[in-house]
Amino acid sequence: MLTCDDIRSIALALPQAEEQPHFDSTSFRVKGKIFATLGDEPRATLKLDPEDQHNLAQAHPGVVEAVEGYWGRNGWTVVQCAAMDAQTLSGLMRMAWVNVAPKRLAKAFVQGA
């Protein structure tokens, strides 16, 4: 079972990732853009491509699901991290990071991975 500290470690392991407050929660950003937020349960909200979001929700019912409304239609996705292993969450976190990182930085990361 993943903890909030595990989620934080996974997010901050990504290139140029920074932790910053976001309203009443914690956000993780690359070059000022949010790619993930951290909830209390532990739960993460990730910025995924809407197609990836749909496919992942189908593959992980009850664990990965779109945020309701407008935000969800634009890729914001809730992940119940207590029901996920670190390797899977790390992959999802990388997807979210690549989705918002500047193209040159994302390309260098993907090619180096």
UniProtKB/TrEMBL annotation:
Organism domain of life: Bacteria
Keywords, alphabetical: DNA-binding
Cited Pfam families: YjbR (PF04237)
Any GO MF annotation of the entry: DNA binding
UniProt xrefs under InterPro entries: YjbR-like_sf, YjbR/MT2646/Rv2570-like
Descriptive protein name: MmcQ/YjbR family DNA-binding protein
Annotated organism of origin: Phenylobacterium ferrooxidans
